[in-house]
């Protein structure tokens, strides 16, 4: 976890308000105007445009600061199409065997060059090499695998990528709430921050008792507090 807190110099709102708005936006499928309304109910007057600027300025910084589990040795990769201004693009995603998001990348194609670019970025981001790579039967994966990480075991089967496919679901939910993305760059910026912040507040609850879940969430909110530089957590409405 990065120990350096973001700079709030020049902002008239306290850090508690800024971090809370950013948390609401990335944690729940809310629009900027809905965050504005929820904050108004709490007695805090902030415009939706201000929330938008905070998301752009602090979202990626918060995501980078959150600690992520060490990547497992079995990676699942999958790609889905997304609509950006009416054009079909592809969202590439990789997760480990525990469902932890390793990286995402929005690209124009799903050919060998795109798969190769994603694998190289993935190795650079994680700074590690998996033991096993699991993909669907897209032939581009096989060609890119042989070039980028030929010593890694490659398992190709349509029914083996469920873990990566399930990881796309929160993104689909946000895509619908946002009524699509405006550009490739905007989609990449949002999803990079979203893939770091949202999973932090989504522990594997089905594997925990209620008491264990509350304890884990308390720890995760404390980490968020440290990353954002907040001195006191606001109680979630």
Structure write-up:
The structure is a single chain. The protein is α/β, with parallel strands linked by helices. It is built from 9 helices and 5 strands; from the N terminus they run αααβββαβαβαααα. The chain has helices spanning 15-27, 32-41, 48-65, 112-126, 139-148, 162-167, 169-177, 184-197, 210-228; strands at 74-84, 87-96, 101-107, 132-135, 153-156. Strand 1 (74-84) and strand 2 form a beta hairpin. Helix 2 (32-41) crosses helix 3 (48-65) and helix 4 crosses helix 5 (139-148). The radius of gyration is 19 Å and the shape is globular. The two termini are 27 Å apart.
Compose a concise summary of this entry.
The protein has helices spanning 15-27, 32-41, 48-65, 112-126, 139-148, 162-167, 169-177, 184-197, 210-228, and strands at residues 74-84, 87-96, 101-107, 132-135, 153-156. The protein has 237 residues and is of the alpha/beta class.
Give the DSSP E fraction (strand runs of 2 or more residues). 15-25%
Question: Radius of gyration over alpha carbons?
Answer: 19 Å
Structural category is alpha/beta
Count all strands and give the number.
Answer: 5
- How would you describe the shape? globular
Helical content band: 40-55%
H/E topology pattern: HHHEEEHEHEHHHH
